[in-house]
Amino acid sequence: MALLNALIHSWHLNNIHSRYSFGYWGNLLVVVFSMVSTTGWNVINSISGASVLAALSDNKCPQWAGVIIICTTVWIICALGITWIHRVDAYLWIPPMIVWCVAAGTGASSLHGAAIKSPTGANGAAAALSFIAVVFSFAVSWINCAADYNVRMPVNTPRSRIFFATYVGILVPTILVQTLGAALYSGTETSAAWKLAYNVYGVGGPLKMALEPAGGFGKFLMVLAGLSSIPVSYIPTFLPVRFTNVE
């Protein structure tokens, strides 16, 4: 993705690269594939955020209501246009970062690296390949948004700077978030309360248990965590519109 991002910018194609490559009618096929991909990720993002809100409210805000809140907010931000998306993106990474750091600290006593045994033999190989596929798909799914993220950069920006900015921007959050996610799940293997929370609320359960020692501040962080699915959803939602508006 980092390489493609650098090349697209240096070719001055940015948001019209699909139209340039596939033509008008071929571009419609790209739009369809993009909508399928982004819809799938938006479903995952919105349900994950809604599960956090449900866990915070003890199901007083059910998951379906959380999904509506998140998706409605995403569409409102998309309606403001790409300029506002870039403006809010510059700052909305900060609250989730605070949430994950606090959760790692307050939940550390319940996190155990040896709690989950890695499968061995043929099952181990299959599990490893599945995990690699999940990590890869999480990162590579941003490739159809690459041009939208550097569209405001000067055309003479060095390729190397775009490459490393993209590479680090994908690598660091992927490692941190997925490592913390695996650590939080380990708590479900060592604590019956964590296991129950996971079974009832899904991914929001272990996060709630990790932040409980923080008290009211932890609840505030749960709100931020639930709403953090918004910034990762509006660029994919906005993307098909960018493709179809190129004349």
SS summary, helix count = 12
Shape: globular
Q: Architecture, CATH level 2? A: Up-down Bundle
The count of β-strands is: 0
Instruction: Provide the low-confidence segments as ranges.
Output: none
Approximately what portion of the residues adopt beta-strand conformation?
under 5%
Output the helix-strand order: HHHHHHHHHHHH
Helix content: over 70%
Overall number of structural domains: 1
CATH fold description: Amino acid/polyamine transporter I
Q: CATH homologous superfamily, by name?
A: Amino acid/polyamine transporter I
CATH hierarchy, class:
Mainly Alpha
Radius of gyration: 20 Å
Average pLDDT number: 79
Main sheet properties: none
Going by helix content, strand content and strand pairing, the class is: mainly alpha
Keywords:
single chain, 247 residues, mainly alpha, Amino acid/polyamine transporter I, 12 helices, 76% helix, globular
Q: What does the model show?
A:
With 247 residues, the protein is mostly helical. It has twelve helices and no strands. Helix 1 packs antiparallel against helix 8, helix 3 packs across helix 12 and helix 5 packs across helix 11. The protein starts with a helix and ends with a helix. The model has no long low-confidence stretch (mean pLDDT 79).
Quick take:
By secondary structure, the chain is mostly helical. It contains twelve helices and no strands.
Reconstruct the topology from this structure:
Elements: H1 2-10, H2 17-56, H3 63-80, H4 82-89, H5 94-106, H6 121-140, H7 146-149, H8 159-190, H9 192-201, H10 204-211, H11 216-227, H12 231-244
Helix pairs in contact: 1-8, 2-3, 2-10, 2-11, 2-12, 3-12, 4-12, 5-11, 8-9, 9-10, 10-11
